[in-house]
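Hey, can you fold this?
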Amino acid sequence: MEKKMIIEGQINGDHSNRLIFAYYVTGHGFGHATRVTEVVRHLILAGHDVHVVTGAPDFVFTTEIQSPRLILRKVLLDCGAVQADALTVDRLASLEKYSETAVAPRDSILKTEVEWLHSIKADLVVSDVVPVACRAAADAGIRSVCVTNFSWDFIYAEYVMAAGYHHRSIVWQIAEDYSHCEFLIRLPGYCPMPAFRDVIDVPLVVRRLHKPRKEVRKELGIAEDVKLVILNFGGQPAGWKLKEESLPSGWLCLVCGASENQVLPPNFIKLAKEVYTPDLIAASDCMLGKIGYGTVSEALAYKLPFVFVRRDYFNEEPFLRNMLEYFQGGVEMIRRDLLTGQWRPYLERAVTLKPCYEGGCNGGEVAARILQDTAIGKNYASDKLSGARRLRDAIVLGYQLQRVPGRDISIPEWYANAESEFGLRTGTQNAETNQSSVFENSYIQDFEILHGDLLGLSDTMSFLKSLAELNTLYDSGKNTEKRQMRERMAAANLFNWEEDIIVARAPGRLDVVGGIADYSGSLVLQMPIREACHVAVQMIHPSKQRLWKHAQARRQGSSPVLQIVSYGSELSNRGPTFDMDISDFMDGGEPMAYEKAKAYFAQDPSQKWAAYVAGTILVLMKELGVRFENSISMLVSSAVPEGKGVSSSASVEVASMSAIAAAHGLDISPRELALLCQKVENHVVGAPCGVMDQMTSACGEANKLLAMVCQPAEVLGLVDIPSHIRFWGIDSGLRHSVGGADYGSVRIGAFMGREIIKSTAADELCKFLSVANGTNTDEVEEDSLEPLEAEKSLDYLCNLSPHRYESLYAKILPESMPGDTFLEKYADHKDPVTIIDRKRNYGVKAAAKHPIYENFRVKAFKALLTSAASDDQLTALGELMYQCHYSYSACGLGSDGTDKLVQLVQETEQGKSSKSGDGTLYGAKITGGGSGGTISVVGRNCLRSSQQILRIQQRYKAATGYLPVVFEGSSPGAGKFGHLRIRRRLSHKQE
């Protein structure tokens, strides 16, 4: 357990020893510099010298501190997160910038800093939160302490997922640097920071006020009865056009960070660059901005309601947002409404709030006392092993934003204590799926089922229970729980309970074998898993639809509106709601082009998830000519974990389209529905996936493998899983994304390889015919021409047999090829869903070889499933899975986590128990798009196998700190489930 202490006290200015502090400040925004200023101010008041190493402007410090004991040294050693604009972090650019700033010159940085620290005779190094400062202090033989609410290993760990293998070492290096620190002074609203051994919690660090509210307003010439909002986006307004009509009548807006030549409307007031914002915050009635430690802490301290807009790809935000909303001080604004000037409903809501933070605001003073005591020799650290020894996989630990629903956001998943009878957690993280059938049946009575069958599915019963609870929430109007999830409140106002609701269900899938060969036409074998997505849809006349306030304010006339609530938004830092006018999908009287739709959803990454749901509507409009005259309300609740390689996106798409089709009276076959959903992912979302995920989710059946040849989607039928065989999925903890660079580049490499093979076959055919020219054509064997004729027009790589590949093409395929070289020679790779980057080098040989051999392996796997039950059968099945796994790695789609899990299965198989005849696990492989996610495991269907799976869980946790989720069991696809049509029972309306 980490050591936590809340320390109170005051700095005394009469300390006899003058201490020298070296205080390093990250280059990410002004927020770090402003809180450092408060700590530094108290250290200087106590008579100490502070050297601040920073890239921030001098005025940030000198506005508050005028003392010769403050020495500013302008050096940037940590660039933080690179922002494309005020709300968008460029993840790849952040990693590249950090590499340029802190990695490439690392040796010279360490040498320079060690010499400098010795030159000033520093007593203590303090870092907020520059990693290399901790290592430099260690090299200089000086103690160091970090003061922060987040660490860069945690932030950058998510960015690494977008960058694939590139820059992964950055996270490890940062975590190791932090581990040299003595302890962490942790600020409220903190993120998980596993690199630190010991932790001391302090109150909020907040800048003091210089002037009272009335004085500030008087100087600005603003009367007390005028409502005042301060616009605070960290000095990065991004060129937004501010509109007079954005503010309610009688309101004024103070604008921080406006450019000198920016012309503002008459109800907007431009603030000077060097303005002291705490005084203005306290003089305002609410703040509009992005969440950061500085804005949140000062809003809470001065009890100012905060209207916030989400920032993309910054893991710090959900933890601060949770704190802000816990103390009833936050209102979330949709980015689209910020940019279009629809501010009124949010501002009017904000001024009705009564923020209730009563905690301490003297964190600067408390932190300074701890730093002073540490500098004179006091020991706050424990004697545990160094942080570096605890860091087996910083990426796994750092990335886990996922939490069990309902659990406090500040408790990381990997410190949870959910235990099974074997002492380990199994199954999904959905806490609602294991209720007794008697209890479940009790809440089905809340609704009358007009059509459909529950099929005994407990998760569907739980979903109906959640709907019933929304009824009660809406009827009672209760909102007394401080931690009541915003998405539940939004959902309570989503449906008209007097009208019918359609419910559809679609499961995720376990890629048993086939994987990334689907887009090359392979046979695949996929199993629908127990975890599924439920979608409730209501189509209703616009006049009867319950609209959220901001949607109502934006609405023109009585046009139909789409409103979506997605449960689980806290699990992945995305917006919980989405709404749009359905007419927005029209462009010149026709449904908009897919490219426009892709850009429409991508403009706000916190709501990009809506493309998976709302995109189904556009695809129905474009592909089937459907027109929607009624409004649509949708509730999405998925138990399929995101980013784990079990097709969470496909289950959302299939469930959404199934529900919308049923509500609109469309009769779409499961196969056709899967193909339409693939269009959603390829063209609206922009992920270059094959069709096996959607097909399994739509056409699969419980406890059977769906056999499909992806050319493009020929379902061969269902393959029974023999009763003595069982499949499991084990999550590695590393996030997987088919939209990531690795998956897309491997797909491009495979299509490049196909074009090279086709071109080579055409050349060989020409040579063959030219040699035969002038001879008796009867002597030319027609059979020898047919293979080359077929390969010249090869439509799918999987139609090339391994022996033909080895005999003709293996030697001519390059290991890799630059994009521009390929395009110059072959013009196009002929893949409709990916684009070649001319500047990028693509792996070709491994990417092309994989589907050719994978198709053969899957055919053999399918045949083995029907052979006689024996150890030889299971051993052969396992060997095919191992071969597939290493073929993934050859393509560049492996990962440390999945490799470790496969290794653990191999060790289990080859251990003493296996040699004695008790072994029950036979093989494993990475699944789906690779680069993380889940592995699939084949074994004997017995209790011993389950025990071994649980032991693998335990060993993986010991190695990485992460307890993986196990997927076991199966459930029917969307086609088998159909849909439910439900209506709230009359008795409830009368109560």
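Oh, and this one too while you're at it.
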Amino acid sequence: MVGSEKKSFVFAYYVTGHGFGHATRVVEVVRNLIQAGHEVHVVTGAPDYVYTIETQSPRLFIRKVLLDCGAVQADALTVDRLASLEKYNQTAVLPRDSILATEVEWLKSVKADLVISDVVPVACRAAADAGIRAVCCTNFSWDFIYADYVMASGYHNRSIIWQIAEDYSHCEFVIRLPGYCPMPAFRDVIDVPLVVRRFHKTREKVREELGILDSQKVLIYNFGGQPAGWKLKKEYLPEGWICLVCGASEDQEMPSNFIKLPKDYYTPDAIAASDVLLGKIGYGTTSEALAYKVPLVFVRRDYFNEEPFLRNMIEHYQAGVEMIRRDLLTGRWAPYIERAITLKPCYDGGVNGGELSGARRLRDAIVLGYQLQRITGKDIAIPEWYSLAQNELSSRTQLPNKEVLDSSSLTRQSDYFTILHGDHQGLQDTLGFLKSLAEMESSGRPQNNNKLQTREHLAASAIFNWEEEIFVSRAPGRLDVMGGIADYSGSLVLQMPTRESCHVAIQRNHPSKHKLWKHAQARQPKEGPTAVLQIVSFGSELGNRGPTFDMDLSDFVEDGQPITYEKAYNYFTRDPAQKWAAYVAGTILVLMTELGIHFEDSISILVSSGVPEGKGVSSSAAIEVASMTAVAAAHGLNIDPRHLALLCQKVENHIVGAPCGVMDQMASACGEANKLLAMVCQPAEVLGLVDIPPTIRFWGIDSGIRHSVGGSDYKSVRVGAFMGRKIIKSLASVELCSSLSNISTPQQINGFNPDDVDEDGKNLLETEASLDYLCNLSAHRYEASYATRLPESLSGQEFVEKYLDHDDSVTTIDKERNYAVRAPTRHPIYENFRVKAFKALLSASPSNYQLSALGELMYQCHFSYSACGLGSNGTDRLVNLVQEMQHSKSSESEGGTLFGAKITGGGSGGTVCVIGRNCLRSNEQLIEIQQRYKASTGFSPYVFEGSSPGAAKFGYLKIHLPSSSKS
């Protein structure tokens, strides 16, 4: 519109239906547009007063229409991912055609000159159809938020992400606000300062109106548009404090030190008059807390990808304190409020973003799968204040120390700690971990504690008594060479430990000597200290989770006995931001339950994992194995590696709630460097270690698409496989009964003639009628007797009505869901055959035929995954690139270098395993694949190469700070 003679424009401003935060920032932009003489039509689902309290003008028009739903929240902190996608489908996908037709007609009727969206996808497409330009004004986009939800909902919802991204692509550019997430659907970007509502009344005026004394401190309790219906009690506040409550219901009773604000109360006035703000992290709360320099005590929301970026901005400007959700609900507020009042927020940036001032243009890259991937090589513009966390997560070791250890430093580790037991084996990541521990100890000394550090670093330096012994364990991830999801069906699997590993440092102390965080101290009973578990996790920014976790160990005991796994699962899932702690703390409960161990001392644990999450290389198994190994070492427990792996599987299956097989834990615990662990998963029989021929090498290439064995795709495929086994057993039982009965007239049952069965055939049917693992059914028997008799798919309701149960203890059947049966059943039967052939071929004479056959088996495995519904665009693309490289003229003229590739682990994204000749040319071709993948997706994939010893081979270290370092 530059150069137009028209001086007054008509703006159509679409506001998302997610909460009030979007509406409140829209208010400030709208006010500036109207002040400049323009006409604004706001399309919103929020109440009128949100807009009219700030702007009353004949040029403001409010149209009450809801065109998207945002994230569905059960309360202010709980997001229902599946319900969010379902509601979006009902709100914006199914009626899409009628929405577009209506909006195009309306835009033309009001003669709109420009559409602004915050951040309604369909509004952008409607503008394009109406021939009107559109822009978005936001700090995030829904394709990025929903990408995480699709991981839980399954493959069938992925089209929602692409539709949203396509809608956004019709925008001219995005006006991007501070604290932004990657917004991959937009190419052109204009950055502006914070958009913040102005306050109207002075601090003194607000306090006078509300009857607050000058001597009283004020806490404002604000969880946005969500009702604050939690029970509030007088003792929640420190002495001398008053709390202003936003969003309370009309019938909610308040203690004498709580004041209920009217629903239409202008929140910026209340915030500016307060000393501390308690609430969730949203853009509106964050921007106003920073602008008015009011410390924010925040409680994390689950499954909202916007939050880590805003949270890091708050903490960068020293304006935030995190409160654990259970302390919010149980009223242990005082330690957090007292900490917050000591902060001195230092935000000094602009707050006039509503004027759309200070703009500069940038470019964002498209990231495959619309996933944030915080690793080296990604190509996304990240705010300057986020670079510290960004760089920390880029390192393979996920340690606070970023320095690369030179060869001379590797011999001086005794300068940091005296190793009383064990051997670091020269492993660079272990040496780096020991150095980082020493740096933590040093930073905790008074003369060094003024250095700006991350919260996880500060928390870690404060949990250990550095004068006492510390135990260190190490467990690697694993590269799934062959076997994958066939493990839960009893297959032979071949797994290689990765070079990347997880380290755990642990210390036990008598409760009276345990160093506790302040909020944990507040829980201690008056009669004397009790045992507490405190955990710090480095790399918490990889997911929306807290860097620390603590609990009273008595929480694991009920009536003198360990609580059930079901209760433990519920304990950890009630706060999704701290659910990660189940992988670590769950090892303690499993040892209590399965081995009868009593834990009377307090325990401090530091977890630092360099095994990237969501890549299909068993980051969770590495954490579990390293944690249990460390706990066992600190308590003098001698647990056989195989048994330890099985115990760790119980953690993941029953406490975490992920239905994985046992191969991940076995590889991490029992594997050895540069060898394949061969194991029959019935349940965990290690056949031995398979040497990798010197002519062969394996690599892993990350697709950039996050996967989860807790996701619905993996679960549904597992359910389908167990359904198939139950159906096969039932068919075999029917045929066996018919063959044993005295039927005078031969009858055919489903094409089976009982007279054709001899004694050997009856024995075979007996075996199949009691089939314990699918993989014990041979491929030829499956094809001969069952392949055509299994349904392609079956509803949960139909299956339960006919077969009652699928006999899998770690998954449940959803009666409303339709499950694929034939492909998930076929996969493990054929995979078991492929793995056996693969293992045999590894010992064959080196040749191109050997490599070609091994590669072909991997390709077959990959496409079998896809048939089960566990493929992904990214992994398919990588496999295709390997195929193209393998069959290129240059490669064929050299006799071949790369020979095969397959998706790994749970599928639906993650890592691709590649086999090739162990030569320099193979590495060059992998680099070329990286470059070609980045060119087409914007994502530079991480390559896993090399191997390292499993946890059992590494053992554990017992370390002690040298006396000279203590002074």
